[in-house]
Amino acid sequence: MKKHLRSTVLFFAFITGLTCSAQDARWGYQLSFDGTNDYFAANTVSAAVGSNSWTIEFWFRSSRTVTYTESILAFNPSDGTNRIEIGVGPSSGNKMYIYSPNSSPGTLYGSAAISTNTWYHVALTFNSGTRAIQLYLNGSTTPDVVRTLPAADVVQSTDKFSLGQEWDNTTASGFFAGQLDEVRVWNSVRSNTQLVDNQYRQVPTNSSGLLAYYKMTNNTGTTVTDNTGNGRNGTLVGGTAWQASTVTKNANGTVSANQSINEDTQPADITISNYPYTGILWQRSTDNNTWSGIGGATAGTLTGAQMGVLSQTTYYRARLDNGYGTYDYSDVVTATVLTGTLPVHWLGFSARQQAQGILLSWSTATEEGSKHFDVEHSTNGSSWSRVATIAASGNSTTVQQYEALHTSPASGSNYYRIRQIDADGKHSFSKVVLIAVATNRNAVLVYPNPVVNGMLYVKLEEAAGLRIVNMSGLTVVQKNLAAGLHNLSVAHLPRGSYWVKAGDTAVKVLIR
Fold first, then answer.
1. Cα angle value 217/219/222 (rounded, 5°)
2. Fold adopted by 26-248
3. How far is CA 409 from CA 306, 390, 435, 460, in A?
4. How far is the C-alpha of 200 from the C-alpha of 183, rounded, in Å?
5. Structure pTM?
6. Domain coordinates of the chain in residue numbers?
7. Fewest beta carbons less than 10 Å away: which of 82, 183, 368, 510?
8. Residues 6 or more apart from 59 whose CB is under 8 A from it?
């Protein structure tokens, strides 16, 4: 039988340290608090939000390891007693907290560690209908802190509002040491998409629902201008200093897109995994010297359509493109076209997390002299081990479907590829797929997702209290479960999205 002439396109690279360092360009200036007597006051913010729904966003950087709670944002009644505050406190290291004096416990800490001299984006949302207050870090879809406020702790229009301290017994206290920038106050609960899409860029000052916006553009004096024009200017107290802004975006991600395709064929997508940012600029080169931008390619995934048809070796690279300043490019991704003969024509390869492990599925259009498939696993994308062997069809001109279950994936990143072994010992590889498994304590796996038959299967690594929480922050199911696999009936719950929470882990599920 005649073998089909095909070509192999191999992608290989690691994207490390894509960096945007914005120096007095996009961000302008920032406020620096000494942790002794500095703070920012703008009581008109309380009058604007009142007891309605709201969102407050800001960037902060803590300059010291805290030994007591340091308040970053606080609402306090005019009499000087406490209402609510958020800040950084000592809890197995530095953690964010929400303080609600009429709740138990009064101070509720998050789980994310806060490092000193590192910038974090915070979004604090309050839903007036449910009184749920949630704190999100760096665009995460899972809140780091969530609680329901008693009525007595809901903001009132006569409250004091401050940044960098909280009013206690009519005197300033709990001073914050660090920097603040880009403070925004909205009149609604902002969606996660809105928060993520805009956390690294300035928004129009006339944006709908924007009550106050402190871009820190003054660079002098004790007045902080509300750039919306609404007149809710703030006042600096205690010698709070102006500094050139140094908000920096750093992260590491990996590109995994090994694949075999026909020559002059459009390749599959290249995706930057484990990379939290939007606003990516992709570039292409055929000589690794002269580069040109790829129109419309600004997301973390460079699609096959954007890459175009490949007939020669092509190079790709990316950098952050969410503002101004100094940028570092990623390592170069090389797409090499090599002519050769392949005994298998791959159709697809995917990985899906289930309660029992990771289900791997692949298919072929044709096979010639194919002996077997080795399923290979890696935790770093470079060192591989075999976890399963599946017999091949040998010779086939019809679509063949294959599956394998990896029952012991690692916590964190799991890379998979299929090594196809020919009868004569030659081999070829599928593309690489990446799937992340929760790394938090009391990790929870759920299946199926979405839920279509009213039954949800939950697998716990350790015994834990499990809660199902709706999008309003209300707990609708609560159970104490032992380690292992459990089936829960959710047929009584309305259709929609929910959080399944166990220990420090939260998984979003859709019930249909």
1. 105
2. Jelly Rolls (2.60.120)
3. 33, 18, 10, 14
4. 12
5. 0.50
6. 26-248, 444-511
7. 510
8. 30, 119, 120, 121, 122, 180, 181, 182, 247
**Position 255, amino acid:** V
Contacts of 9 (CB under 8 A, 6+ apart): 259, 260, 261, 267, 310, 335, 336, 337, 338
Domain spanning 444-511: CATH 2.60.40.3080: yes
SS3 of 65-121: CCCCCEEEEEEECCCCCCCEEEEEEECCCEEEEEECCCCCCCEEEEEEECCCCCEEE
First-last CA distance in the chain: 49
| Partners of 259 in the β-ladder | 9
Which DSSP letter does residue 432 get? -
Reported as half-sphere exposure (CB side, CA atoms, 13 A), residue 328 has a value of 13
d(CA 260, CA 345): 8
Give the residue from 314, 280, 317, 309 showing the smallest Cα distance to 297. 280
pLDDT digits (tens, 9 = 90+) for 469-482: 887 778 899 999 98
Over residues 159-185, the pLDDT tens digits come to 999 999 987 655 667 899 999 999 999
Neighbouring C-beta atoms of residue 405, cutoff 10 Å: 13
CB 387 within 8 A of CB 377: yes
How many helices, marked H, and strands, marked E, lie in the chain?
3, 45
Among the listed residues 213, 181, 183, the one whose alpha carbon sits nearest the alpha carbon of residue 61: 181
Strand, helix or coil at 46?
Answer: helix
Q: Which two tokens stand for residue 187?
A: 């009149």
Type and span of the H or E element at 464: strand 464-470
List 241's β-bridge partners, or say none.
32
Of the candidates 35, 177, 167, the one whose C-alpha atom is nearest the C-alpha of residue 114 is 177
209 DSSP assignment: T
Secondary structure of residue 162 in the 3-state scheme: strand
Residues 97 and 110: their CA atoms lie apart, in Å, by 6
Q: DSSP 3-state assignment of 158?
A: coil
Judge if 26-248 and 444-511 fold alike in CATH terms. no
CA distance 427 to 198: 46
* Residue 229 DSSP SS3: coil
pLDDT digits (tens, 9 = 90+) for 344-370: 787 889 998 876 788 999 998 888 888
